[in-house]
Specification:
By secondary structure, the chain is an alpha+beta fold. The chain has a single domain (about 5-125, about 170-180), classed as Glutaredoxin (3-Layer(aba) Sandwich), CATH 3.40.30. It is built from nine helices and four strands. Strands 2-1-3-4 form a four-stranded mixed beta sheet, with helices on both faces. Strand 3 (about 110-115) and strand 4 (about 120-125) form a beta hairpin. Helix 5 runs parallel beside helix 8 (about 150-165). The radius of gyration is 17 Å and the shape is globular. It starts with a helix and ends with a helix. The mean pLDDT is about 95.
Length: about 180
């Protein structure tokens, strides 16, 4: 299926948010608190003439989606980008075209397309600085065979989720990363 067809298949932001069963309040909290810098808005408004669109591969249970999706929504608003959300687990045919490191179905993935349905950029699943932070956290975990691995891993995920929801420096890092793809 071509990217235009995938875009047409997707849910609008309102439809996606309305369908969410997990992380909805957390995502909306970031959406309501995060604001783009004036200089970022000015740069993004310059993209309006391109009439870009975005396909977002996501799932509502995903902690990275809870962080990244609301920031994309703010960027899209400034840049005039129309967005459609596609659930990863029901659309592996598309997901498997955008594997992280060629192997992982990590999400969210943002596929930016023009009006002809041609891919003009891809972002995700994390900003490089956030990926480095996650890798550092993972390096501190015990071996997978250790009896406390599961407990320590869950503590790590909880710490990350809490920082994703409260740290506006993380929000800005994500915004900068997404903009670097759009404005390059």
């Amino acid at each position: 299926m071509e990217l235009n067809a995938w875009f047409q298949k997707g849910m609008t932001a309102d439809e996606y948010i309305g369908s969410m069963n997990q992380n909805k309040q957390e995502m909306l909290s970031i959406l309501n608190q995060f604001t783009l810098k004036d200089e970022d808005i000015s740069k993004l408004e310059g993209l309006r003439d391109q009439q870009l669109r975005a396909i977002v591969l996501t799932e509502d249970w995903c902690g990275d989606a809870l962080l990244n999706n609301p920031i994309l929504l703010k960027i899209a608003e400034a840049a005039g980008i129309e967005i459609r959300f596609i659930l990863r687990d029901q659309n592996l045919e598309l997901m498997d075209q955008y594997l992280t490191n060629g192997t992982s179905r990590a999400i969210p993935i943002f596929i930016f397309i023009n009006q002809d349905g041609e891919e003009v950029g891809v972002w995700g699943p994390r900003a490089p600085e956030i990926q480095a932070r996650v890798e550092k956290e993972r390096a501190g975990l015990p071996e997978k065979e250790a009896p406390d691995f599961q407990e320590k891993q869950m503590e790590m995920y909880k710490r990350l989720r809490e920082s994703y929801q409260k740290d506006d420096a993380i929000w800005q890092t994500v915004a900068n990363s997404i903009q670097s793809v759009l404005l390059s």
